[in-house]
Amino acid sequence: MNHQLDLNHQHLDERPVRMDLSPLKAALADVVAIPVTPFAEDGSIDAAEHRALLRRLLDGGVRIVTPNGNTGEFYALTPDERRTVTELTVDEARGRATVLVGVGHDVPTAVAAAEHARDAGAEMVMVHQPVHPYVSQDGWVDYHRAIAEAVPELGVVPYIRNPLLAGERLVELADSCPNVIGVKYAVPDAARFGAFARDAGLDRFVWVAGLAELYAPSYFATGATGFTSGLVNIAPGVSLTMLEALRAGDYAAAMKVWEQIRRFEELRADRQSANNVTVVKEALASLGLCRRDVRAPSRVLPEAQRAEVANQVAGWSI
Question: Where is the chain membrane-spanning (predicted)?
């Protein structure tokens, strides 16, 4: 793929800055799909299969996708592979879905990835939770500000997994970077989420439940309007049915879906989400849609557990 796009040579002050971010806010209030990254037998990215899986999501009704998310094995991909995934996704999604690209690592790497996402044609970036062991709250603001300021044309969505982060820090960031428009909140505490969202501004940002379908009902009850999903790779209709119920305030209907997918999501969440990606890829493999291969530090499921995953998926409307 050609990574040297002509836009790379433009100066920042020549680029038009997107002033109306309301369409991007609307796009975030949805099922935010986190596509898997399929690997070929030789361990490389299977581009043809990746495109096929993306088309399956889009044909299934998905309207926003996050290449280079955790379900896409972001931290196991090389920089060049992450660029490839971004470009494949933008190419397939063009005119059909909004693209929210995952970026992270050190500040220069994250900025370069955000700039590449912009130049490739993506509309937003999601900033992965910093993995540095020493993260101050002021440093969290500095990290995200550096990325957001580099791409003022893009919507920016911090991925928050730190329960100690104060809502006021998000306000501080957005006051200096108005392109920070939403939050993927992934602290497993609905009460904490509700407080954080109100401290930062419930109506100021789009709040995305970052712990997928298992937490979506409780997070919607306290202010979320979208949720992320890895399960959507397998059964887009299941995830979209839950969203429709939550939008209508029909929690009884949403919980029927919750009950249907509960065991599957528990398998993903077990042992601190050790098999989060593995279970999704195993389900896709059981349907003949991609290989089950994952990269270290993930590992394929033992043979004895594969049947349970296949049985779970067999009961869904796919």
Answer: none
